[in-house]
């Protein structure tokens, strides 16, 4: 359950929230289950915040810091999260359909069973990211480095993987119906004809 005082501070404005947070560094941010739909959270310092089960539809996050945040089972469709820092964040079981994560830092993040369908990951940093069971159907992943990744059994149907680096990746049982692979590096790929 969200801390109502923290939620009120955030709704009063990001600058006010960030100033409060800068002098209350020891306090854990708990916005779990909060409805943050439509809020302007641009520039918000939400690092290490508990945002589990929160709803973000239509919110603005430009320049926000979500590193180390817990976002399990969140709902956030139709969002532009381009270039945001999600390093070390837990996004498992989140529904991020139609979400743009272009150039986002997802290094060491947990995307287990996350729905990223119909979104964009081009230019994202996926170093050390856990992507087991992630729905990547109809996702723009042009030029993405997926080398050596275990993509077995994943839904990559109708995704744009042009110029992606899939060298030494495991595609055993992956759904690739309609996927665009033009110019992709498929050297040493396992499970692909």
**N-to-C SSE series?**
HH
Outline, from the CA principal axes?
A: elongated
Question: Residue-averaged pLDDT, rounded?
Answer: 95
- Number of DSSP E strands: 0
Indicate the proportion of strand residues.
Answer: under 5%
Q: What is the straight-line distance between the termini? A: 49 Å
Output the number of helix runs: 2
Describe what this molecule looks like in 3D.
With 193 residues, the chain is low in regular secondary structure. Helices cover 10% and strands 0% of the residues. It is built from two helices and no strands. It has helices at residues 4-12, 14-23. It is elongated, with a radius of gyration of 17 Å. The protein starts with a helix and ends in a 170-residue tail after the last helix. The mean pLDDT is 95.
Primary descriptors:
little secondary structure; elongated
Give the helices and strands, then pairings:
Blueprint: H1 4-12, H2 14-23
């Amino acid at each position: 359950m969200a801390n109502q005082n923290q939620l009120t501070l955030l709704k009063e404005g990001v600058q006010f929230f960030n100033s409060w947070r800068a002098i209350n560094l020891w306090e854990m941010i708990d916005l779990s289950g909060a409805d943050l739909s439509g809020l302007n959270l641009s520039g918000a310092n939400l690092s290490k915040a508990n945002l589990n089960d929160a709803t973000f539809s239509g919110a603005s996050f430009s320049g926000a810091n979500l590193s180390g945040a817990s976002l399990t089972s969140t709902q956030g469709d139709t969002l532009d999260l381009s270039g945001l820092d999600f390093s070390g964040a837990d996004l498992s079981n989140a529904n991020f359909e139609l979400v743009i994560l272009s150039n986002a830092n997802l290094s060491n993040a947990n995307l287990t069973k996350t729905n990223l369908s119909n979104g964009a990951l081009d230019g994202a940093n996926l170093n050390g990211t856990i992507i087991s069971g992630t729905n990547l159907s109809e996702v723009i992943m042009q030029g993405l480095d997926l080398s050596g990744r275990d993509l077995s059994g994943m839904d990559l149907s109708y995704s744009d993987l042009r110029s992606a680096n899939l060298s030494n990746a495991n595609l055993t049982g992956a759904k690739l119906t309609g996927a665009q692979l033009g110019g992709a590096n498929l050297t040493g790929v396992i499970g692909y004809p």
